[in-house]
Fold this sequence. Notes:
The protein is α/β, with parallel strands linked by helices. The chain has helices spanning 16-28, 49-53, 70-80, 100-107, 121-124, 129-144, 160-164, 176-185, 209-227, 229-254, 257-288; strands at 2-9, 35-43, 59-64, 85-88, 113-119, 156-159, 191-197. It is elongated and about 75 Å long.
Amino acid sequence: MQISLVIPAFNEEDGILETIAEAKAVLARLEGVSEWEIVIVNDGSTDRTAETLVGQERVRVITHPHNAGYGRSLKSGITAARYDTIVITDADLTYPIESLPDLLEMYGKGFDMVVAARTGEEYRGSLIKAPLRSVLKWLVEFTSGREIPDINSGLRIFNKAACMSYFSHLCDTFSFTTSMTLSYMMTGRFVGYFRIPYRERKGKTKVKLFRDALRTLQYIIQASVYYNPLKIFTLLAGLALCGSVFGFMLSILFKVLIGYILGVSGIILAFMTFSAGLISVLLKQIMDK
C-alpha cells in the first residue's frame, strides 16, 4: 500500500509541526506500506504557518494565494497526491493519528471509506453546539437512511479516484466531509466507522457555529435533492400536513375561519410538494439514462 496523508492548514502555526512529527512517526512504522508522503495545503495563512513548513523532510507544501476554504484545500491536496490511498486529518492535534493502523486495517476489509468517529468531552462541545449537531445528524441520517456516528469527522481514509469522481458535488468549505459522507452513502458505497478519542484543539478554531451550520444544512438539502429527491419532498410534505392538522385543531377548538383555511391549504401544499417530489424522481431517472 502507498499512502498520501493530506492536511489542510489555515493559520495553524501552533500545532502544525507537532502534527507532522506525529504523522511521520506513525507512517514510518506502518506494516504493509511501501511508500508514503505528507501533503500540507497552506490555505492562505496569515500567521507563521508558511515559515514553519520550510525545510520539512518528506513533506510537500501546496500554497493557496488566499484563504479558499477547508474543502477547497482538501481538493487541492487530494488532486496533487501521488498515491491512490488518501488519508486526511487536521493540523490542530485533535485527531489521534496513532489510530491510523486500526483505520487502515478496517479499510482493508473492503470499505470504500473508513471514518474516525469522534468520542469524548471535547467532541460533545457546548450546550449550543451539541443540539445543532444532533439536528444535522438526524437530517443526514434521514436523508441517507443509515445510522451515522459522525457526519463530518476530519480523519478518514478513501481512494483518490473514487473521491475525485464526486468533486463537483463536494463543497469547498467546512461542509466538505459532510457532503462527502452523503455522496458515498447515497450512491451505495461502503462506509465504515471506527471510534477514536477526540482531543483538545491546539490553536484557535476557524469554525463559525451558526454560519457553518447553515452551510451544512444547505449542502444536506442539495445532496438530498440530487441523489434522492423524494426524501426531502416527503419531509416537506409531512411538515405541511402537520401545519394542516394544527389549522384544523384551531378551527375545531376556537371556531376560527383562519384555522380551516390553514388546514385546507396545508393539505393542498402537501399534495403539491409530494407530487413535485415524484416529478423530480422521474426527471432524475431520465437524466441518469
